[in-house]
Amino acid sequence: MATVSYLPDKITLELAPGETLLQGALRAGIPHINVCGGIGRCSTCRVIVLAGLENCSPPTKDEQAIQEMLNLPPHVRLACQTTITGPVKVRRLVEDVEDVDFFSIFIEGVEVLTALGEEKDIFILFADIQSFTSFAENLLPYDVLYSLNLFLAQMGDIVKRHGGRIDNYMGDGFMALFEADDAREGARRAVAAGLDMQAAVARMAPYLEELYGRSFDIRIGLHFGRVVAGKLGHPGNKRGTVVGDAVNLASRIETANKAAGTRFLISQEMYELLRGDLLVGKEVRGQIPGKSGEYRLYEVLGLKGQQ
Predict the structure, then answer these.
(1) Which domain covers residue 38, as residue numbers?
(2) Looking at the domain assignment, is residue 54 inside a domain?
(3) 205-250, pLDDT tens digit by residue?
(4) How many CB atoms are located within 10 Å of the residue 282 CB?
(5) Distance (Å, rounded) from C-alpha 171 to C-alpha 175?
(6) Cis peptide bond prior to 235, omega within 30° of 0
């Protein structure tokens, strides 16, 4: 008998031949979200098959496209595209309208929208003003704000010029992200951005010295790794960002500059991508505070071919 048990609703019913999981749920009064109307053009009706996967119909062409886009495992199915031939137990993934924005994609024609919760490999750059507390000491709050905005405006222009974006500001520092279809090309752009940041701060120094009798330098950490891109925050105020161990490592690499006496460190993953293009100073080996294991980091002095 083709029966389906729906969770978290705790409802079990028999499906007619050819009736989809979504059609059965709606017939039973289950509030099963389906933004596209159940035609295989969104992912909001997806379910986890907890038991009876062998009794589910093979994915349709439309379902396969969404599975590939979201890299879904075989036991996550679109309810609007799935019929059954025997007992099945499923759990709805999108339980209310507020979940739609976080857990789904919606496809309009051939337009591709960003998939939330998408895994990707990305270049992660952390930059932080060195000894900013000492720089800001005894300055008026307005002057501190002015100096920070001057710094961040120039850093943002540089990141944008090299094809990246500033994802997050953290006091006197920030995280920037760079993506590229060609990893070597993306690595070169990210390193070039870091070098241009250092040059910009050096050009700012005489001006700050004239204004305040002091200036500052920056420390940079850069890593290439896998993250999960998604939206975080209250349902009414979410913003896109990335999370994952690679983000934590990039931040720790930036911090490692202090103990190493360097200004710009990259991970071994970055070094391997650009081995022939880099002008390297120190090689730093050992543990990184807050991370287990041993790491190799490389001090970047320049890029071959860059003026």
Answers:
(1) 3-103
(2) yes
(3) 999 999 999 999 999 999 999 887 766 666 556 667 788 889 999 9
(4) 14
(5) 11
(6) no
131 shares its domain with 221:
yes
Where a domain ends, among 48, 74, 103?
103
Given a cut of 60, whether residue 296 has pLDDT beyond it is yes
Please report whether residue 156 resides in a domain. Answer: yes
Residue 113 inside a domain? The answer is: no
Confidence of residue 197 (pLDDT cuts 50, 70, 90): very high
Residue type, 205: A
Mean pLDDT of the residues in the chain: 87
Residue that is last in its domain, among 69, 103, 137: 103
Residue whose tokens read 């690499």 = 253
Q: Do 142 and 25 share a structural domain? A: no
Q: Mark whether 60 and 181 lie in a shared domain.
A: no
> Which residues, 6 or more positions from 170, have their beta carbon under 8 angstroms from its beta carbon?
128
Asked whether residue 66 is assigned to any structural domain, the reply reads yes
Q: What is the three-class DSSP state of 52?
A: coil
Compute the radius of gyration of the chain from its Cα atoms: 25
> Tokens for 154?
């120039």
Instruction: Indicate the number of domains in the chain.
Output: 2
Q: How far apart are CA 43 and CA 56, in angstroms?
A: 18
Beta strands in 52-151 (DSSP E): 76-78, 88-92, 118-130
Judged on CB neighbours under 10 Å (0-12, 13-18, 19+), 104 is: buried
pLDDT of res. 6: 94
Residue reference for tokens 């990335």: 242
Q: Report the DSSP beta bridge partners of residue 239.
A: 232
Distance from C-alpha of 13 to C-alpha of 21, rounded to nearest angstrom: 10
Prediction pTM value: 0.65
112-121, 141-150, 293-302 — which is least confidently predicted?
112-121
Return the residue matching tokens 């690595």: 187
The total of other beta-carbon atoms located within 10 Å of residue 21's CB is 27
171 shares a domain with 224: yes
